[in-house]
Amino acid sequence: MLVKSKKAADHVKDLEETFSVLRKYKLKLNPAKCAFGVQGGRFLGFMVTQRGIEANPLKIRAIIDMKAPTYLNEAQRLTGRIAALSRFISKSAKKSLPFFKTLRKAKTFEWGCQLRTHSGRRQKQLPIYYVSKVLNGAEGRYTSIEKMALALVVTARRLHPYFLSHPIGVRTDTPLKQTLGKPDTSGRLK
């Protein structure tokens, strides 16, 4: 459990609120595992700092220090470690595609999508998160507009908390809005 407050003055109030909920449901914390007033640290395999959630340097070092995979189980181990850090790697599906091809021993098609946020003051767009997916089976035969719609669905599922709490804008060169608004769209787009 992690309790973070925007202001130091609010932190005690936030802790009291958290403890009252724990008491209400009769949950107990292990004092040996509790840390109060820390600026950051490891939490659930990630680094939590004032800047937000970051990749754990120990996990990055483990990937860097790994020898090049020569057997199938080594490639599986590497892809598992990369998948654990994929939220911090831009275009992770593209970069890890050779490993997936080795594991699947089949031809696959990949795509990546980038979610951007709109800053109202300077009208500058910056990437806030990268989401990628390897298309398999019938997904590889989708039309470009269907792939774009699939990208939005996958992104909305993976980044559900962002979609609930922030206004999201999608920029694309495909006429996605007009296509989705047509009554005669294909079954996959409905």
Automatic annotation (TrEMBL):
Domain Reverse transcriptase RNase H-like, first and last residues per copy: 106-189
UniProt keyword annotation of Hydrolase present: yes
The entry's keywords: Endonuclease, Hydrolase, Nuclease, Nucleotidyltransferase, RNA-directed DNA polymerase, Transferase
Keyword Nucleotidyltransferase (UniProt): yes
GO molecular-function terms, A-Z: endonuclease activity; hydrolase activity; RNA-directed DNA polymerase activity
UniProt cross-references to SUPFAM superfamilies, sorted A to Z: DNA/RNA polymerases
Domain of life: Eukaryota
PANTHER family cross-referenced by the UniProt entry: PROTEIN CBG26694, PROTEIN NYNRIN-LIKE
UniProt name for this protein: Reverse transcriptase RNase H-like domain-containing protein
Provenance organism: Sesamum latifolium
